[in-house]
Amino acid sequence: GKWHMGVNCKSRRDHCHHPLNHGFDYFYGMPFTLLNECQGTDDPELAKSLQDTYWLYTQMIILAVLTLLIGKLTNLFSVKWKIIICLAICGLLYFISWFSSYGFTKYWNCILMRNHDITEQPMNLEKTTSNMLKEAVSFIERNTHRPFLLFVSLLHVHTPLTTTEKFQGRSRHGLYGDNVEEMDWMVGRLLDVIDKEGLKNTTFIYFASDHGGSLEAHRGNAQLGGWNGIYKGGKGMGGWEGGIRVPGIVRWPGVLPAGTVIKELTSLMDIFPTVIHLAGGAVPQDRVIDGRTLLPLLRGTVQHSAHEFMFHYCGVFLHAARWHQKDS
Length: 328
Known about the structure:
- The chain is α+β, with helices and mostly antiparallel strands and 328 residues long.
- It is built from nine helices and nine strands.
- A three-stranded antiparallel sheet has the order 1-2-3, with no helix packed on it. A two-stranded antiparallel ribbon has the order 4-7. A two-stranded antiparallel sheet has the order 5-6.
- Strand 2 and strand 3 form a beta hairpin.
């Protein structure tokens, strides 16, 4: 699915940020994020204000060239052809310099990779949903007789809300609702495969989001970014809970009791030590690991999260902190 960490550091082939250089054995998906440019129907998303400024300056140069050209041809004023040609060439070079970066965003950024190889450039969004689902199902089927870790990061509920025709108009909540319906169906398909392969009682499944709904995502009067309930704020809005507090849903029949609601705050960083615990491994001791295994909390052997402090950073800036005094 969506990796969103990029690929390279210093050269186009070093792949230092690639999933296969960060512990994964297999990768199929999008190394960058999903942008409006990938669909090609909405306003550009990447540095839109900067692009608008560049385009304004380009139009001014075009207008200046046309004014000089018309003035020269109609003898309204005297100007050398050399000046007109030089201005036109400078304008063309200026246009090429910025358009080569932003005008081909769909070609450069909207790509699919299998391991280290690009399979689609640009990717076909109409087929991406089915392709990713097929890859995930195939991965499960190939690994039914041995332990596996499958991380599926869907492109769904993220603008431009790419939704296949089958699910368009299915929801009363517009395009966002349709997108959620399709995501729900995809998750259901993966669970069906796990059940069919007899892995239901031996597979730990964790479903969550990386952030709350984006309140600022709109197309006209239609909101494209979901709903955050009673919590203030949304995606990218500092440390407000609407942007960072999301539900986590766990499924492990026969091991974890069904229908249990845990109101303790945990972190997506807790998945790492939890998975290591399940695999019988040991958490690295040569560095500080911020996560805590979720298993005691999920099994009910403890009542409180192992986190006394939880911090939320935006970049290098601390935006929120939570302190839950131990044994309190």
